[in-house]
Amino acid sequence: MAQSTAAPAPTTLPAAAPLPVRAILPWAAFFGLLMLVLLYFVGAEQGAFAVFSGEGVHEWVHDGRHLLGFPCH
After folding, report:
1. pTM
2. How far is residue 31's CA from residue 50's CA, in Å, rounded to a whole number?
3. d(Cα 4, Cα 51) in Å, to the nearest integer?
């Protein structure tokens, strides 16, 4: 007599709870501000708007500046 094997019952995963905007907003603002500071140092930290004197920051972000298409020399 042949025995039939039943397929295991599919397991359902619990649905993920949606994140409220109030929980995401502070992190989005923080990372947005961080990206603006990074963009400033890569794109504009040279010449008249320099926060730091000398060429130190320019040398640290030189390759990133060229990668993003900012002219520097």
Report:
1. 0.56
2. 23
3. 77
